[in-house]
Write a structure and sequence with these properties.
- It is a single chain.
- It contains 14 helices and 12 strands.
- The chain is α/β, with parallel strands linked by helices.
- The strands form 2 sheets. Strands 2-1-3-4-5-6 form a 6-stranded parallel beta sheet, sandwiched between helices. Strands 9-8-7-10-11-12 form a 6-stranded parallel beta sheet.
- Helix 2 packs parallel to helix 3, helix 3 packs across helix 4 and helix 7 packs parallel to helix 8.
- The radius of gyration is 22 Å and the shape is globular.
Length: about 375
């Protein structure tokens, strides 16, 4: 294949913060010709519903751009309707998560609008990238469940139409500024570095810790991650009830301070109900923490089976054993083998550039064969 110079890429992101910002900043760091049009990372639900409307007047007229890159927060089909001049660009969408399996008690309670947005975005895209195989398979396998909710005139073969566009491109992790340190083993230090929201399962995590405390099992705790305006009430309760165990509580602005806390911890725990990659978990493990995660979601794709618990009782028993003898956690982490290179930006970014190159070649081929 002829290798062409990389084209100008237009990055459009209605939720420019967190992992969405990191992804774009990482990719643009390897490009010389690009443009970024974004909205601040606030009110995710409004961005998902109205991002196309908010962005369509901010996007400049097309000049030399060849590629449009966006995340699945954007309703791409809606944007193309508002800005038909964007249609000739080759369109790449990246899925950090998918809304088709967002945890709800009853399928009828699901807000289908978000799932619908993501489905028609895939139809409008040329390439659909997922940050894990679990993300890809859970999206494709649940399209029919969503379309079944339509009262009539249900489209057929949507999975097949979308699947041929799909690839997995792991989130590009920058491990260059992270390092592990020797850990003290007198008291087990547990870290929970997730968003303070329902889908990360904080109630489950704290229920396990409360049982350990009731048994007078000693441990120390760092509750990190990003809080929001409407945090689950459990965080207020746990700050009081576990005040003697808590070493760190709340978002850490300094990345170096954040990594130092991870490096001082023995075990990182996830009780997530909705996870497609898990940057915070992988960072903690790279810093030397032993991971304990559900035997579900994306976790079996990334972590060995001995890191996965079957239920909350299993999690409690494993934590109890580590609390009794923290050196067990240190030794377990020492024996843990994870191929961090496959998630490294040094590996992922060249794959992204190859995808862009393939699209350029396709455009070049079409032009030459008209």
């Amino acid at each position: 294949m002829q290798v062409l110079s990389y084209p100008k890429v237009m990055f459009i992101e209605p939720f420019y913060g967190g992992s969405h910002k990191v992804l774009i900043d990482t990719f643009t760091g390897s490009l010389t010709d690009y443009e970024i049009i974004t909205l601040p990372a606030k009110k995710w639900h409004w961005r998902a519903r109205c991002g196309a409307l908010s962005l369509h007047e901010l996007i400049p007229s097309i000049t030399s751009e060849k590629i449009l890159f966006c995340s699945s927060v954007l309703n791409l089909a809606e944007l193309l309707g508002l800005r038909p001049d964007l249609q000739p660009l080759k369109k790449v969408v990246y899925f950090h998560e998918n809304q088709l399996i967002y945890p709800v008690r009853d399928i009828k309670e699901r807000d289908v609008q978000y799932s619908y947005n993501q489905i028609i975005t895939c139809i409008a895209a040329d390439v659909v990238l997922f940050n894990s195989y679990f993300n890809q398979s859970s999206f494709l396998d649940n399209i029919k469940k969503i379309t079944k909710l339509l009262p009539d005139w249900r489209p057929k073969n949507l999975k097949q139409k979308i699947e041929c566009k799909c690839q997995v491109l792991y989130f590009p992790m920058d491990f260059s500024h992270i390092s592990a340190h020797d850990k003290l083993t007198n008291i087990l230090h547990i870290v929970w570095p997730h968003r303070w929201e329902f889908d990360k399962g904080p109630e489950d995590f704290f229920s396990v810790l409360m049982k350990l405390k009731e048994e007078k099992i000693p441990f120390k705790l760092s509750i990190l991650g990003e809080p929001f305006t409407d945090n689950p009430p459990i965080f207020t309760t746990i700050k009081l009830v576990l005040k003697e165990e808590i070493l760190n509580f709340g978002y850490i602005q300094s990345k170096s301070d954040y990594y130092n806390i991870l490096a001082s911890s023995h075990v990182v725990v996830s009780t997530a109900k909705h996870e497609f990659f898990g940057v915070a978990m992988l960072e903690a493990v790279y810093c030397g923490c032993y991971p304990l995660a559900p035997n579900s979601l994306v976790y079996p794709e990334i972590y060995p089976s001995n890191c996965l618990y079957s239920n909350l009782e299993d999690l409690q028993n494993r934590l109890k054993a580590f609390c009794v003898d923290p050196s067990q956690a240190v030794e377990a982490r020492r024996q843990l083998i994870i191929d961090f290179d496959k998630y490294s930006s040094k590996t992922v970014v060249p794959k992204f550039k190859q995808i862009i190159n393939n699209l350029v070649y396709f455009l070049f081929y079409l032009k030459e064969n008209r």
